[in-house]
Write a structure and sequence with these properties.
mainly beta, Porin, 8-stranded antiparallel beta barrel, two-stranded antiparallel ribbon, 1 helix, 66% strand, elongated, signal
Length: 164
């Protein structure tokens, strides 16, 4: 019985391996928005995408994981300077893209962002994104990203992804 279960699992994994798949890795840089604009100055991020569909398909479905760092700001409050620490998140999400004309794509990442800085719990993660493919190996994209923790950690960003 164990051999049959092993064979079934092996066959399923082999089937997934034979399907067309795409792996992308990249970085983003952005300006804080929503509540984050009051206490941070800049946002940088790293992203990794794994699409279960081929890069040339009209609809791409996959998963993504990343890292976001909101750099803390110094602000004046009643004559005192208050310094805010960096806020860091790890977004984990499903990703979907609709590709038009083989070059332009649009879609969204929806999931949960884990707060990894002390005092941040994490929350619902939503990122609508538009992109342009260059030579089938580079994607330039722009997006608005929001993480709903106790505050709304939003940012407007641009990024680049490299396909492997």
């Amino acid at each position: 019985m164990k051999k049959i279960k092993f064979f079934i699992v092996f066959a399923m994994m082999s089937t997934f391996a034979l399907q067309a798949q795409t792996f992308k890795v990249g970085a983003t840089i952005g300006l804080p928005a929503a509540d984050a604009a009051d206490i941070s100055t800049l946002v940088v991020g790293l992203d990794a995408y794994y699409y279960f569909t081929d890069i040339d398909d009209t609809v791409e479905i996959g998963a993504t994981a990343g890292f976001r760092n909101f750099f803390g700001d110094e602000i004046e409050v009643l004559g005192q300077t208050v310094e805010f620490d960096d806020a860091q998140f790890v977004p984990l999400a499903a990703a979907a893209r609709l590709k038009l004309f083989g070059i332009v794509s649009g879609g969204a990442d929806i999931g949960y962002a884990l707060g990894i800085t002390d005092g941040l719990d994490g929350g619902f993660y939503f990122r609508p994104v538009v992109g342009i493919d260059i030579a089938d190996t580079i994607e330039l994209n722009a997006s608005y990203e929001n993480i709903s923790d106790a505050a709304n950690w939003g940012n407007i960003n641009v990024g680049v992804l490299f396909e492997f």
